[in-house]
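$ ./design --mode recover --in tokens.txt
reading tokens...
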């Protein structure tokens, strides 16, 4: 019963955090590992559980997504599909022991990216720099491959990538972030499922609670003006989880 409660609370929190500020995997992934799910399977299950939240958040930003620009939406979605396939394929060929050793570094990288992301985006917005479409697609594809391999910190890395290629409208960027996260996660989850990497029992608990959290978070996301304390909490959780995995 304690395990189900922990998974449900982690899923609820993950859904809310993903909708408001990102970083929900910092809660759901460690909770699944704590519940006894092997790391690779926990990563796949946490990615699957985040799908409803990505979908609802993308729908909430559907008007901003339609804003257009270069690269085109079709090109970005193609990179999401390709990156999801490549990342998921890399995960399938990664030995469990090796992935367990890589996880602390991935958590640390994602946490650092989450911590410096807003400042980095403000800098890129002020510079107003632009990149060519081919270079922009390579940058986005690189982040999509990361997302297909490990879902933690995907949102802030996508936002940083969008800023790097010259996007400045944060609402448009946030909508694209949610849509790309959804698309590449659908592709990677399909691959995980075919390979038998989903813990279906844990998924039901985390997925349902994550969907509820995503719905609640989407409703309150635009009403929250100061997310500084929430960001500090997420960053703290990320560093603590990375430290615990390093110790383990």
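writing sequence...
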């Amino acid at each position: 019963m304690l395990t189900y409660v922990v998974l449900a609370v982690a899923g609820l929190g993950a859904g809310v955090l993903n909708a408001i500020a990102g970083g929900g995997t910092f809660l759901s992934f460690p909770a699944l590992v704590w519940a006894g799910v092997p790391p690779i399977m926990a990563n796949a299950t946490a990615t699957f559980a985040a799908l409803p939240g990505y979908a609802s958040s993308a729908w909430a930003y559907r008007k901003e997504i339609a804003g257009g620009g270069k690269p085109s939406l079709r090109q970005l979605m193609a990179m999401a599909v390709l990156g999801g396939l490549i990342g998921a394929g890399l995960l399938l060929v990664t030995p469990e022991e090796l992935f367990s050793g890589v996880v602390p570094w991935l958590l640390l990288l994602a946490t650092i990216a989450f911590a410096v992301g807003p400042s980095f985006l403000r800098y890129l917005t002020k510079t107003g720099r632009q990149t060519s479409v081919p270079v922009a697609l390579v940058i986005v594809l690189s982040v999509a491959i990361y997302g297909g391999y490990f879902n933690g910190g995907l949102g802030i890395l996508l936002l940083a990538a969008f800023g790097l290629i010259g996007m400045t409208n944060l609402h448009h960027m946030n909508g694209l972030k949610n849509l790309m996260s959804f698309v590449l996660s659908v592709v990677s989850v399909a691959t995980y499922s075919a390979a038998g990497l989903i813990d279906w029992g844990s998924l039901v608990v985390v997925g349902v609670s994550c969907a509820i959290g995503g719905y609640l978070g989407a409703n309150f996301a635009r009403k929250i003006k100061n997310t500084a304390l929430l960001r500090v909490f997420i960053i703290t959780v990320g560093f603590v989880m990375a430290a615990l995995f390093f110790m383990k």
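exit 0
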